[in-house]
């Protein structure tokens, strides 16, 4: 379902198109500036439709990147959070639960699980939230980054054990864990990059809509001045919000 903001943007474009269609029928309309000529006004409307499409594409890309990252960290059967217990069990089975490497490992596991309790919240891709997500993004990236670093520390700890870490499942062996580390690192980069592109696209669209709103107001004022406050021409467009 489209968000309220997306519906609002769509209605603004539709109203601008209605204004354009109406003004084209006004006999003798004189644009007050080059930017407010109907051909230039129409060109701006076309550019906005293109920008709306760009926002939609980047929103989809960001949502996909977020989902990929959440699967790798929390949702998949072999996600980071679900690997912790079998890794710890494999090490306890080999060395005993009171061995120093085991207690060192569990200290890192506790850190990761602490991050999981306050599960990182990726900012949702809506105009209002994107504008107000600097702190949210920072906290989210720190949380995912912290989990990634702690998982790297686990791998470092296990690597140092040599043959003392020899789990049976392939998914727990060091090559698989290193592959997982590479994947979550790439997922972090992907989420950050797609969010930055989305935010830039939102900002561009907002600027273009501000321009459209300004031009619309000038056209309305010109129609009001040229044809009169009570004219049919002005009544046709005055209530259309852009």
Report on this structure.
The protein is mainly alpha-helical. It has one domain (4-237). The protein has helices at 4-23, 38-75, 80-95, 100-117, 127-131, 134-160, 174-227, 232-237. It is rod-shaped, with a radius of gyration of 28 Å. It starts with a helix and ends in a 5-residue tail after the last helix. The mean pLDDT is 91.
Key words describing this protein structure:
single chain, 242 residues, mainly alpha, 8 helices, 0% strand, rod-shaped
How many beta strands in the DSSP annotation?
0
> Which percent range fits the helix content?
over 70%
Give the overall pLDDT as a whole number.
91
Q: Rough shape?
A: rod-shaped
Number of domains: 1
Strand content: under 5%
The Cα radius of gyration reads: 28 Å
> Structural class given helices, strands, pairing?
mainly alpha
Query: Can you summarize the main beta sheet?
Result: none
Q: What is the helix/strand order?
A: HHHHHHHH
Q: Unreliable stretches, pLDDT < 50, 5 or more residues?
A: none
> End-to-end span in angstroms?
22 Å
Number of separate helices: 8
């Amino acid at each position: 379902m489209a968000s309220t903001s997306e519906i609002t943007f769509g209605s603004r474009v539709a109203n601008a198109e209605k204004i354009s269609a109406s003004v084209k029928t006004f006999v003798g309309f004189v644009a007050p500036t080059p930017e407010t000529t109907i051909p230039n006004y129409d060109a701006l409307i076309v550019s906005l439709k293109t920008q709306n499409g760009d926002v939609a594409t980047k929103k989809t890309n960001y949502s996909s990147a977020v989902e990929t990252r959440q699967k790798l960290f929390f949702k998949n059967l072999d996600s980071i959070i679900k690997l912790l217990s079998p890794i710890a069990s494999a090490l306890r089975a080999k060395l005993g639960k009171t061995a120093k490497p085991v207690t060192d490992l569990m200290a890192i596991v506790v850190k990761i699980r602490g991050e999981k309790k306050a599960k990182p919240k990726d900012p949702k891709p809506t105009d209002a939230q994107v504008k107000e997500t600097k702190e949210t993004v920072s906290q989210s990236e720190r949380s995912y980054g912290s989990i990634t670093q702690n998982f790297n520390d686990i791998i470092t700890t296990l690597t140092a054990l040599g043959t003392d870490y020899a789990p049976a499942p392939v998914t727990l062996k060091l090559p698989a864990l290193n592959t997982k580390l590479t994947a979550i690192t790439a997922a972090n980069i992907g989420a950050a990059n797609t969010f930055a592109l989305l935010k830039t696209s939102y900002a561009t669209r907002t600027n273009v809509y501000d321009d459209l709103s300004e031009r619309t107001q000038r056209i309305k004022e010109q129609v009001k001045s040229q044809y009169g406050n009570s004219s049919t021409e002005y009544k046709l467009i005055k209530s259309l919000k852009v």
